[in-house]
Design a protein that fits this description.
Two copies of one chain form a homodimer. Chain A has helices spanning 25-37, 57-69, 86-98, 117-131, 143-146, 152-161, 176-186, 201-205, 217-229, 234-250, 255-267, 284-295, and strands at 8-11, 42-43, 103-106, 136-141, 166-171, 192-195, 211-214. Chain A has 305 residues and is an alpha/beta fold. Chain A has one domain: Alpha-Beta Barrel (TIM Barrel). Chain A has a seven-stranded parallel β-sheet with strand order 2-1-7-6-5-4-3. In chain A, strand 5, helix 7 and strand 6 (192-195) form a beta-alpha-beta unit. The interface between A and B is large, with 38 and 39 residues.
Chain lengths: 305, 305
């Protein structure tokens, strides 16, 4: 797909923390620079991988503002701004636009289970009208965490009711068929579909997806960029195999903790392992298993400064 | 059970809203006064029924402060202060204590699914240490919404590690056996177990529970109070049957919307039906069915002013 606002590889950026569990914006900005230098076209900050749900509302606004203040281009950021609460979601999305972001990624309201499509339509109608402005809204389909899926019928209804407002979707369902359903229904109209699973980047690009937003991009973005640059070439095929291997390695342990451990190793900075509960650091045995499986993929991980 | 801080009937208080979906504190305070005058010993404001998850963090603090400013006794309130985020949870709990509340009801962090008991223990350890103060913490077991259950082993670990901090649990699992497991393990030490389901008030009181915190108490608290006052008397038996009938009636439609419709009817104030999406008002047909089923229980609902 051409002309996607965030087309290509986007990392669901990890959030480093100090010993007191506060966000470490200096480390985070350095990591964002590394990501942009090694294959990422965009930065999906404050998503599931970024522990956004574990951060307070004011902390989330401070992350976006703090990264911009440290020179990370706001135009490259697609912060997660979805919360269970209408008003907090609107506040975070407006703050993202004020900071210069061109897009925001919105989970559905995820506390109340089994909302109706009418209820979700009413919710996003309120969000659109209250947010106003020009910021592009991306839907975040991740039923394993949110327990609230976005079906094609609901997306279609939102696109019709609010033309130009909903620009794409991140699909973390892990289902090729589900990702494909969005591509087939909407990609021809410029709707950007992002794979939330590295192994689906290549097959969905073949069908017209815009790229990916993945957790593993925190460590494998240089490989993902090779897939994106030439998914229909031998190098793209070879990169896809490595990408799939790294995905398999990182989901063999608790995902966010494992990615933090890999970045800690790559930066030589053990503080990177700090994580907010209910997540926990990997055990030594988990780290060994992860590092072995990750290295066995043959990935050539660019060194962090 | 004697000496429970919130022993007896507690309503999971509804949150009335204006047409712009902001919280209507005057209507809410009037409803709280009606509840306290008609059988409620305590006010579980800002729980699931109170649409707390649909309210922003600053709105939630304003509700507690606003009710106190309107003369609702802080000592009667047990606000819900659990959020997915450690920092917001701490902020809300501290604000509740500052406002004069003696207890707060804490959901587990409910975004990330399948957290380990070690992770939940680490989370609540941080909460306890950061909150400090004297406020009693009540755990909120509601796996149907939070997807994160509190097992007896985890509760026991928290009670041992932080003596005197965790004072009880609200069990909305709907399972008698689950509620009983908390009563049998901890009630002898003064741990207050609250049924989250009206039909379990009587059977759990018989075993040593402290009372209930229920959604339907917004309309049936005068009946619940009769059960509490004499669960082992003929009047308590009769009240239990009516209570169970009203519970069955209100869960035959979307619960929060249905309770708001019943209060709207009882107050003659249709504004009471306003609700934040993803919830929706009942349809006319749903209202008719609900009112018929509710009235068929023979409940003598005290009129609201």
């Amino acid at each position: 797909m051409k002309n996607a606002l965030f087309g290509g590889v986007n990392a669901a950026v990890l959030t480093p923390m100090r010993a007191d569990l506060s966000v470490d914006l200096d480390r985070m900005a350095a990591h964002c620079r590394w990501l942009l230098a090694h294959g990422c076209n965009g930065l999906g900050v404050l998503g599931t991988t970024g522990e956004a749900a574990s951060l307070g509302i004011s902390e989330r606004t401070a992350v976006v503002e703090g990264l911009v203040a440290r020179g990370i281009p706001a135009a490259k950021m697609m912060p997660g701004t979805g919360t269970p609460a209408l008003t907090d979601t609107v506040e975070l999305t407006r703050a993202a636009e004020r900071a210069g972001c061109r897009g925001a990624l919105l989970l559905p309201p995820f506390y109340y289970k089994n909302p109706s499509d009418d209820g979700l339509f009413a919710y996003f109608s309120e969000v659109v009208q209250r947010v106003g402005g020009e910021i592009a809204l991306y839907l975040y389909n991740f039923p394993q965490q949110s327990a609230v899926p976005f079906g094609v019928a609901l997306v279609e209804r939102l696109l019709r009711a609010y033309p130009g407002k909903f620009r794409g979707i991140k699909d973390s369902s892990g289902s090729y068929e589900n990702g494909l359903s969005y591509v087939e229904a909407f990609a021809k109209d410029g709707f950007e579909v992002y794979a939330g699973d590295d192994t689906l980047l290549k097959p969905l690009l073949e069908k017209g997806a815009a790229g990916c937003i993945t957790a593993a991009s925190n460590v494998n973005c240089s490989v993902g960029a090779r897939v994106y640059a030439g998914w229909n070439t031998p190098d793209g095929e070879a990169a896809h195999a490595v990408l799939a291997g790294t995905r398999k390695a990182v989901i063999s342990v608790p995902l966010i903790s494992g990615l933090k451990a890999l970045v800690a190793r790559n930066t030589g900075d053990p503080a990177w392992e700090t994580i907010r509960p209910p997540h926990l650091k990997l055990t030594a045995a988990q780290k060994t298993a992860l590092f072995d499986a990750f290295d066995a993929t043959g990935i050539d991980l660019p060194k962090a400064a």
